[in-house]
């Protein structure tokens, strides 16, 4: 569990700078340059991610069960993760109304993904992992939306056609990942069977 927690701390230290230390972050970017800053932060985040993956894998050998989630939570998790895939797709597909409406669909997608996994898993490692992502995503979403309002940032209005594309691409990516990727990476099929 220690490796998982250390990985989360390192990963979120790099991802929470805009939430808690935006001024310092801006000073550092000014001092070392945007590319050097991105490189340093990316390396630290990657090390954190490796520690998260390794640490989470270690917790699976000796799980601490906190509760046994009902079967229906797996279905709710699948729906929330589908929504997450659509939101993340909308974040990176230019011209969606979803992005204009949500503002930060990638972070909203992380919230949906983390909440779904929290509801469907009752082990301590899941609570630590997905709870951390949910807390970060909530904080980042609130701070980002507030910053957008203060700066007058508004995404372009977008089009219905782009929304349809985001939903289709997101749903196909979700199905492929649920059917093949999740089993390959995690060893568990969220679709059953």
List the main descriptive attributes of the protein structure presented here:
2 domains, 193 residues, mainly alpha, 9 helices, single chain
Please sum up the structure shown.
The protein is an all-alpha fold and 193 residues long.
Order of helices and strands: HHHHHHHHH
Average pLDDT score: 91
* Helix-residue proportion: over 70%
Our measurement of the CA-to-CA distance between the termini, rounded to an integer number of angstroms, reads 29 Å
Number of helical segments with 4 or more residues: 9
| Share in β-strands | under 5%
Overall SS class: mainly alpha
| Count of distinct strands | 0
- Detail the poorly predicted runs: none
Radius of gyration: 18 Å
Shape field: globular
How many structural domains does the protein architecture include? Answer: 2
Biggest β-sheet description: none
Task: Provide an overview of this structure.
Helix 1 runs antiparallel to helix 4 (34-59) and helix 5 (72-92) crosses helix 9 (160-186). The protein has nine helices and no strands. The protein is globular. By secondary structure, it is mainly α. The protein has two domains: 1-62; 65-193, no CATH class. The model has no long low-confidence stretch (mean pLDDT 91).
